[in-house]
Amino acid sequence: MKHLCTALVGLVLLATPVCAAPHRKAAPRPDPNPYRTMQHRCAAWARRYEPHYDVYSGYEADGQFYIHDIGAPYARFQFNKCMTMNGYPTDIVPDSRHIQ
After folding, report:
1. pLDDT on residue 47
2. What's the domain count of the chain?
3. CA–CA separation, 9 vs 25, rounded Å?
4. pTM of the model
């Protein structure tokens, strides 16, 4: 009887498909605003050095794009370093398609 049950379990296991259709992950969506995302990430990086550091960006009344920050100079240095190392130098004004 024991061998019969073992054989039956073996047949059931052999009858089931070993590899079902692979589960595919959805492709990652592109970031709609990579400049803002990097700005937030770099601000978080700078907060490791100055917990009260914060950065704001936007257009002023004269139509120019500005980045304003609040915090210690070393945190500002870390923010600028992070932005530059990730391809967004803070001395170059980004074009309007990055800003929303």
Report:
1. 94
2. 1
3. 33
4. 0.60
